[in-house]
Amino acid sequence: MTQIAKMEIAKTQTMTMETKEIATRTRTAEGEKFRERVLALAGSEVKTCIQCGTCSASCPTAHLMDTPIRKLVKLVLEGEKKAALSSRSIWLCTSCLLCTIRCPRSIRPMAVVAALKTVYEKEGKRCRDSVFEGIFGRQIRDYGRISEFLLSAEYMIRSPGSAAQIMAFGAELVPKGKIELGFEAARGERIEGTEEMRRIFELLGDEGKAEAEKVEAAEAGEAKKAGKAEETKEAEK
Amino acid sequence: MKLAYYPGCVARSTGREYEISTLAVCRALGVELEEIDDWNCCGATHVSNELVSTALAARNLVRTDLPVMASCSICYSRLRAAMIRLEDRKVREKVNQALEKKYEEAKEVQHVIQTITRALGEAEDPEDLVVRPLAGLKAAPYYGCLLTRPSGGIDSPENPSILEDLIRTLGAEPTDFRLKMKCCCGPIFMPEEEAAAETLIRILRNAKESGADFVVALCPLCHLMLDANQPLLEKKFGEEIDLPVLYVTQMAGLALGLAPEELGLEMNSVSTRPVLEKLAAIEAGEKAEEEGAEVC
C-alpha cells in the first residue's frame, strides 16, 4: 500500500468526527458566498462528495500538497474560504484528470481546483503560479496564441527566481531553432480574431463572479427585511 | 481522407519536429490536412475559468466543417472536454454570446495517433505502407495523462493499449513500462520545477529499466519534459540517462520509409542517432543473413 493510501485511511478514521463538525458549524455569510461561487464554477454535484479520498489517492502530486484534494473539497463545502485559498495544493494540480475519471460521485475535483484558482485570481491574490497563469491568459487574450519567447520573457521579469531555469532551457531550445528570440517574431503570430478573444475573456471571465453576486444580492435583500437597511441609511447620513 | 488540422501553439515553437513529422506522415498515408483558419490557443491547462477555456476551444471547432485532427494531447483533450461542457444548453448559450460563429453541434475530433492507426488499419495491406519495419527496436510507450482523458475517448483512460498496438504494427516491440501513464508534471514545470523534476527522473529511469531503445511521446509537453529537459535532469541528479524520445509521428515516419530529415529527427535534444544506427545495423544483419542463406 502506498504511503498516500495509508495516510488517506488514517484520515478517514478521524473523518466521522469532522463530518459532525460540518453539520453543527454554521457557515459565515462570506463562507456561504464563497461556497456558492465555487459550486457555480465547478458544478453543484460537488455537494454530493462522500469524502472517500479516491481523488487524493490518485493525485500524482499529492505527496507535495499541504492539503489533500479531498480536504480542499471539504473546505469548499464548509465555506472555509481562507484555508482553501491559502493552500499551496491548488497550484500543484497538473490537471491530469485522474481524480476526475475515478471519482465515484462523478464530481470533477480538478474543476474544484480550477474554480479555486479563478476565485484566487479574481480576489487579487498573487503567487508565482498565479502570475504565470495571468501572463498565459493575457497573452491568449491579446494575441490569440502563445509565444514561448514572450511567455518566458515576461515570467522571468515578474518572477526573477525563474531566470536560471529559463536560461538553461533556452540554451537547449534556441540553437535548435525552436524558440525565435525577439518581439517581432512573437508578434508575427498574432491572429486576426483578437477582438473575439477579448470578448471571450471579458464576457465569460466574470461569470463565476456574477453568480456569486446574485447570491450576494439575495442576501442583501434578506438583510433589508431584517431591518438592517436602517443602519445603512444612518451610516450614509 | 481530408481532415482539418489544429496545430496548437507548441507546433510553432518547442514542438516544431512534431509538426514536421506529423505533416510528413499524413502525406505518406494519403491523409490531406487543411489547417484551421486563424486558429487560437486552446488555453492548455492554464486558463482556469472553464467558460473561457470552453469558448477558446469552441472558436476553433466552429471554423471548419471537417473532422478535426490535433497532434498535441493537451489540445486534443481540451477540444474534447469543451465538447462535453457544450452539451449543456446553458453553457452553449453563454459561450455563443462571445463567439462570432456559433457552436451548434459536436464534431469528430481525433488525435494523430488515431489518424495513423486508422490509415494503417484501412490499408488493404499495411505492409505496403510499413516499408521499413522497426524490427529489433524496443519502444517505451509513454502515454502521459491527457490522451485518454476525459473518459469516453479513444481508449481506456487508465490502461490504454493503442500505442503498444501501433508499435507492434510498425514492427517494433513495446516494453513493459510501468509509469506509462504517470503525468509528466509539465503543466506546473515553470513555477514548480523541483516538484516536476523528481517525477520526471522517475519516469525516465523506469523507461530505461524497461530496456527501451527510445521512448515514444504523444504530447509536445511530455516531449519537452523528457527530451529537452533530459540534459538538465542528468546534471541535476548526477546520472546518465541518454534515452532518445521520439514523437509517435517520428517513429511512424521511420517505419513508413521516410528519411530522418523529413521527420525533424535532428531537432530532438537527446540524439536519435543510436536509434537509427541500431535500425541500420539490424537491417544490415538481416540482409547478410539472407545473402548467406542464398549462398548456401
Automatic annotation (TrEMBL), chain A:
<dbReference type="InterPro" id="IPR017896">
    <property type="entry name" value="4Fe4S_Fe-S-bd"/>
</dbReference>
<feature type="domain" description="4Fe-4S ferredoxin-type">
    <location>
        <begin position="39"/>
        <end position="69"/>
    </location>
</feature>
<feature type="region of interest" description="Disordered">
    <location>
        <begin position="212"/>
        <end position="237"/>
    </location>
</feature>
<protein>
    <submittedName>
        <fullName>4Fe-4S dicluster domain-containing protein</fullName>
    </submittedName>
</protein>
<dbReference type="InterPro" id="IPR009051">
    <property type="entry name" value="Helical_ferredxn"/>
</dbReference>
<dbReference type="Pfam" id="PF13183">
    <property type="entry name" value="Fer4_8"/>
</dbReference>
<dbReference type="InterPro" id="IPR051460">
    <property type="entry name" value="HdrC_iron-sulfur_subunit"/>
</dbReference>
<dbReference type="InterPro" id="IPR017900">
    <property type="entry name" value="4Fe4S_Fe_S_CS"/>
</dbReference>
<comment type="similarity">
    <text>Belongs to the HdrC family.</text>
</comment>
UniProtKB/TrEMBL annotation, chain B:
<keyword id="KW-0004">4Fe-4S</keyword>
<protein>
    <submittedName>
        <fullName>CoB--CoM heterodisulfide reductase iron-sulfur subunit B family protein</fullName>
    </submittedName>
</protein>
<keyword id="KW-0560">Oxidoreductase</keyword>
<comment type="pathway">
    <text>Cofactor metabolism; coenzyme M-coenzyme B heterodisulfide reduction; coenzyme B and coenzyme M from coenzyme M-coenzyme B heterodisulfide: step 1/1.</text>
</comment>
<dbReference type="Pfam" id="PF02754">
    <property type="entry name" value="CCG"/>
</dbReference>
<keyword id="KW-0411">Iron-sulfur</keyword>
<dbReference type="InterPro" id="IPR051278">
    <property type="entry name" value="HdrB/HdrD_reductase"/>
</dbReference>
<keyword id="KW-0479">Metal-binding</keyword>
<feature type="domain" description="Cysteine-rich">
    <location>
        <begin position="142"/>
        <end position="227"/>
    </location>
</feature>
<dbReference type="InterPro" id="IPR004017">
    <property type="entry name" value="Cys_rich_dom"/>
</dbReference>
<feature type="domain" description="Cysteine-rich">
    <location>
        <begin position="4"/>
        <end position="79"/>
    </location>
</feature>
<keyword id="KW-0408">Iron</keyword>
